[in-house]
Amino acid sequence: MRTNYLNHETTIWSWLSTTDHKRIGVMFLVANLLALLLGGVLALVLRIEHLTPDQTIIDAATYNRVFTLHGVIMVWLFMIPSIPTAFGNFLVPIMLGAKDVAFPRLNLASFYIYLLGAAITLGGAIYSGADTGWTFYVPYSSTTMTPVLPILVGVFVLGWSTILTGINFIVTTHTLRARNMGWRDIPLFVWTIYGTSVIQVLATPVLAMTLVLVAMDHAFAWGFFDPARGGDVVLFQHIFWFYSHPAVYIMILPGMGVVSEVICTYARKDPLSYTAIAASTFGIAFTGFLTWGHHMFTSGMSEFDAGIFGVLSMFVAIFSAIKVFTWTGTLYRGQIALRSPLAYIFTFLFLFVFGGMTGVAVATTSLDVHWHDTYFVVAHFHFIMVGGTLTAYLAALNYWWPKITGKLYAEKWAMASVVLTFIGFFATFFPQFLLGNGGMPRRYFYYAEHFQALHVVSTVGSMILASAFVVTLLYLGWSLFYGEPAGDNPWGSRSYEWFTTSPPPPHNFEQTPAFGHRPYDYHKPIGA
Amino acid sequence: MSEEPQSSALLLLIGAITLLLVGVSFAVSYGEHTTWSSIAAIGISTIKAMLIVWFFMEMRESRTSVRVAALGGLLLFGLLLGLTVTDVATRRPAPLQVPMPLHVPAGHVD
Amino acid sequence: MYEPELELHFEDLEKQRHAARFGMWIFLASELLIFAALFALYFAYRVHYPDIFVEGVGHNAKVIGTVNTAILLVGSTAVAVAVNELRRNRTRLGAALLALCALAAVVFLLLKSWEYAKHFHDGIRPGGAGHFFAEHPEPGWPLFFTLYFAMTGLHAIHVAVGGVIVGWLAWWVARDGVGRAGAYRVELGALYWHFVDTVWVFLWAMFYLMGKHG
Amino acid sequence: MNDFLRRLLFLPDQGATFSARVDHLHFLVILVTMFGATAVFATALWFTWRYRRRDELTLTPLVRAPVALELAVVVGLFGLFLFFWVLGYRQYVRLRVAPDDAMEVYVTAKKWMWKFAYPDGRRSLGVLVVPAGRPVKLIMTSRDVIHSFYVPAFRTKQDVLPGRYTTIWFETVAPGVYRTFCAEYCGTDHSRMWADVVALDAVQWEAWRAGADPSDLVAGMLHGDDREHGDRKLVSVAFAPSGVVQDGEPVSMAQRGLEVAARKGCLSCHSVDGQPHIGPSFRGLYGRVEQLENGTVRVDEAYLTKSMMEPMADVVRGYRPVMPTYLGQLQPAEVGALLELIRSLREPLPTPPGIGYPQLPTNPQDGPAQSYEADRGLETIPDESLAPAQAPAGTPGAPAP
Fold first, then answer.
1. A-C Cβ pairs (cutoff 8 Å, strict)
2. pTM of structure
3. Is A28 within a domain?
4. If pLDDT is split at 50, 70 and 90, which confidence band does D382 have?
5. Does A201 touch chain C (CB under 8 A)?
6. Which domain holds residue C88?
């Protein structure tokens, strides 16, 4: 058995003190999955509670804490770190032909900062949890009796972990590319991780300051936003959403990177236009910063500003549309093998475009007035986050599983979980669009009777979705022990990470790589 | 970020200019018209900041990637400032800040 | 004579130096955006309460602010020249100038704490506590001073960190006889100090110049 | 077509004049976007079938999208999105800016209840009575955290901010009862913070202004589903209104007492949830032993009735003697209802009363601050002083601010 990064040293301390980006990636992968399961359980509690209009299993105060924790855990412990820290850490250095990231020790530090932040947040949750929602709107968050401080501090610490990871990836992409690898030769996944890191580095500091201001308001009553002392609560929403809208692009961009990789490999075809995909990544990254105001159309912001934000929001939709157009175009005249990762990507394609289009509808200012803070918006962002990023995460998990563990998994079980995921997802969240249209507000414990039918359908759907994740864990766990060994390149891909052994050796390549071909030139035989 | 040293005299001169600008903006601030003196204060501060960044932080010889990083940060800084202040400035009717609880003078009709 | 060792995964020293500098500049961009939230609050509240902010500036000690600005600029110039001299292998002069800049940081913090003490004495405390706000009950006053304490306080923390960094660099340069090869590490500390100085230049204008004089 | 799509998308009744227009834009945008989404997915599926992998070796052609096609897609989509924005923004401005002749009502949002104060001094809790067919402009503010006045049937919503006025307007199309929700998360009972907009036709509106009880007027409107007004069902989606009028169940004495307290202005000095105010809070008052200037008294029906009729007799220590007398103002049934209300609030609220800003005493040596106003030297302002005009003779006006 050749020495690889898994078996060349196997003591616990070798894992905990490693600076090998692959091991850090695997540790992040495990941490992300745990966070996903915890957030998922909380989501199931919420759904079961909504089976009846009045109290079903928990009371109003507990319900408020559960949806706050569901939001905080899913956003900061799973969605934002998921693909960049797990797959970005593991793959970006290999895809660039480098031995490791630019600052290996900083990489390990950001993992431990992530664990510290997670510990503080979950500690605060277990202690008694906050009931402010993951958005911490003032003045409720500064006057509530529930202890908001631990969660604020926890998220503050998590923010620093993402900033450090972001700096690491940017510098790695700039300085550690293989000798003959120009900017047009790097895989598309690296482009999206690079774009995500730019947003992480430039947006997260504003979140850090926002959390500090809320903590000062809550703990010492400094009254930055205290209306009794002349404060203006809408200003909090400005600096909060200045971070939180780019944050949703931090969540979706890596997913788009996975889509580009998987489509090109399984269609065995060059992307329709490499520059279009790479450039639209930066289009999304930059215009993502311009559009935060569309979260505040009904918040008392001036109509003039609402108009500016409405127009700017339309720019972002354009770059997503370019990506979708290019992906669909890549399938044209390809050799498409419909395996489970590509099936996940089709789920992504349908749900992301469906969810994205409702985003355009919500950005049409007057329609947002009816939909704001209702289940329509809940459905919209779940279509993008669960339908988009989570399916891309599962696709990445299946696609790079042979490279990470060196084992293959049972294809038909994987296909079963894809179908289950799609059915479960659609049954859960499509009724919520109708609930939103019907006028059911968000974060409602008690609701009007005539919404109950749709809530029951949604709860049943969430059960199916949960079962899909269980199936995924089962067949991947099975393949860990009993899967037959995967070759270096089981899917026949031209991307660079498949040109080293799987699992890769400690320093990624036996000899420093000089790739003779570009990552997607499927129109030429290998090595020509 | 080159390796050959630039002339220290130039750096000292730039330092002197910034100190001079400190004196100028100190004097200007005593002007009667506060709005104009405020704009002048911000303007002179911007000049000082550009001098520091261009010479002291050697942006002059930096590679493009460094310039893009600096410009990106600055652009987003201005974006947050600009759109937030536009909101507050263009609110209709003028932002009516009232102490809490509300004190409505008799006969006041909004 | 100090010789930086080549990290294993960089091909050559030039790439390693550029990686360090570029990483530092990205870090400074993220630091700038930490201040962005507070600057946004300042200008938004200035639009809400223009006259209170103009009058509030009058309550700040303009002369001390100006002296502080001069001190930081002297520190910046010293650090810039120090980096330059180190490239000419003049280690002793470089170490001395770095020490001067660390001293500037200490003096700045002393003056700043004296200013805070004066405010506390006048009954101005963050959050609108203190008898000053009983005499000036209009809403907006607490905001101006809370923002003043928050922004200058955050900046003072950055000056303290900058002072420690430059002080440590001065000691390290003197001890290891750092010359041309190690100058790029001193440069990182210098970049951080210059950033802190640039932020103060604007804070000084906003809290000491943009309003009626005291 | 309009009604078919409205029911298909589970949209509530189109209660306000601009609801129909908003819905038409809604149908346009949803249909176009869903068509786009299905088209993309169908193309992808078709390509997957048409170009399915036949063997492992054949190379695929290098297909570059012609720049013209790429540009066409970008410009086309951007044009479509901008077109949506132009339509949407024009409607948004019309949604936000009220017509000048609109009737004004002051709204106060408070932790988990809506209070309405009419310019002529009339006040009501949880039920906003408006004339159908006339524009109504609500001038809203909040006493504690951000709430949001959301009427699904009118397709409009506006956050209610503490420390600032925000306005919302609508013009109801037909008489009816339209359920109103709080749409901005505001705490434990955020999901129970409902209200009802009751639109009355001209005759009933005049009856209400003359003092008729809204519950009698609305009761006729609620029962009998055949009350068709043209093609539109009168009551929007069979909502059961909360607040004053219960659909079917008898109105409990305590509930009626709360309504009387609101209408007679008791709530302007006495809070129901334990918050300190000008008068002692009703919450946890019944059965307590109160300290008077000299001696003590146990709070029972006799003391309460005596205090209503001769307020100056036994004033609880620490409260200013400002309560006006209600002698001759209250019918016996109303007095009974008020007593029932105070009796029903006997045990204090589970959550600590008076969730407010942590009090920062102005001068440490002054000792604990009494309330926001005293602490900052502002004179105390009663809660219900919102209505600007002088209250008519019938109802005792709030003590002068």
1. 106
2. 0.83
3. yes
4. very low
5. yes
6. 13-209
